[in-house]
Amino acid sequence: MSDRAILDVPILDVTGIGVRFGGLNAVKDATFSLWPGEVLAIVGESGSGKTTLLRTLAGELAPDSGQALFRTRAGEVVDIPRLAEPQRRALARTEWGFVHQNPRDGLRMAVSAGGNVGERLMAAGARHWGHIRAEAAAWLARVEIDGSRIDDPPRVFSGGMQQRLQIARVLVTEPRLVLMDEPTGGLDVSVQARLLDLIRTLVGELGIAAIIVTHDLAVARLLADRMLVMQQGRIVEAGLTDQVLDDPQHPYSQLLVSSVLQA
Amino acid sequence: MTPKAAHDPDYNLGYLDEQTKRMIRRALLKAVAIPGYQVPFASREMPLAYGWGTGGMQVTAAVLGPDDVLKVIDQGADDTTNAVSIRRFFARVTGVRTTERTVEATVIQTRHRIPEQALTEGQIIVYQVPQPEPLRKLEPRETETRRMHALADYGLMHVKLYEDIARHGRITLSYDYPVLVNGRYVMAPSPIPSFDNPKMHHSPALQLFGAGREKRIYAIPPYTEVRSLDFEDHPFHPWRASNCCDLCGAADSYLDEVVTDDRGGRMFVCSDTDWCADRREAGHRGRLAGHALATPRADDPA
After folding, report:
1. Is residue A102 part of a domain?
2. What is the ipTM, given to two decimal places?
């Protein structure tokens, strides 16, 4: 019964988020909820406001209206856009993580793989070198990076390895919410498949909630429990992934689904 | 000690004009009030190049009073070009007494060292700082480093130390070793050897830092906690050469290695020339005592 009660409370409650860039309404009145352990995909064409919405949820962009209530591990409810900077940074280190489309934006390219994974631990206060290194090694193994590469900088890694390293770096502090912006963008199909497999396994094992922004409906089909379809800044359709993909209701969703060969 | 004299009437006392000295003193007061915090100030052109101690000289000019006794050291030595020219500069534009003896000095301007002789209450030590930002090599954006200081977001500093241990098995950083001041601000101690870091902790002297090119002043008030950053399983270890001074035999001072010929001959000498001379006068003798390098103290170089 208690488990049920926890699951009944959303980890993230987004109400009426609007973001304007000058005269352009990038996101209009976005409203949705996310429950613990749930994977939500946001799909839509380029320029539909997916990434803007994601960055707002990470606290990197200030919305012009609306609120995003996040429930912390301690049970406290905070409004992400109205957090003070020190608190936002503290939560960004421990409670949520952001996986960038381009691993170069999320990694320190000159710092070794172990240092990249360890940075979040050290930022969160870890000061025992041996423990930090052991933790980094364990995470490299989980994302299938060979342990002998722990002291290599990510600039000598392949694109797929860089992306896996970025995921390890984000997950090492066991966040409760992970925001991913096109995590498979720019990777070839076989590498994409392995990465998707890995993300699905890790998200399942750790029971973390994730929001994945993608324009690739296959990624949404594989990973997401539910999905949102965005068009010109507005959420035009929301529902279970299979439901939306197999029986799209909104004309734009129908167009999106029909423009892929086989989703 | 040289006698007090009248300052060169062609210059204002201390070279800088009175308003500039007031501006620097205001920055110094703020710096002392917030230990380790870098206070921006309107650094002036000085009659020597950036990188030669313009920041330290401006701080010295602002704190020097008529009754002060000035000592200037460069890498611990009183008799190198930079130390001699700065000492003569202040003798000319302020007329204050100058000395080479640490115990006699009330203001000590230094580059790269803290004297071996323990500093006492009432003394001021002024450091010349080339790069005041300890995070600069890790984070090139000034807006971001200032935000990191404001939020005490110092994880990145430990990443640097982590990398050192991963690569070399120990922290190899041997100078400009970052410190945490008063439990709050991470600070660059200027390029002093890590050997000198422990001397900053709870020092009875007032420590002032001036960076002329970077236009920053910061300070450590007397008796302030100064901790060198480290890991629990890799504690901070001040480094020194494992030799004795070849002139005075000191086994606990910071040493310079001097190449003496082209056949591999070398000797180790105290980098602090005043400390070494004191010990030789007290009768201590090293392996090469009487060597040409052991010149007697020139008490009045000006």
Report:
1. no
2. 0.81
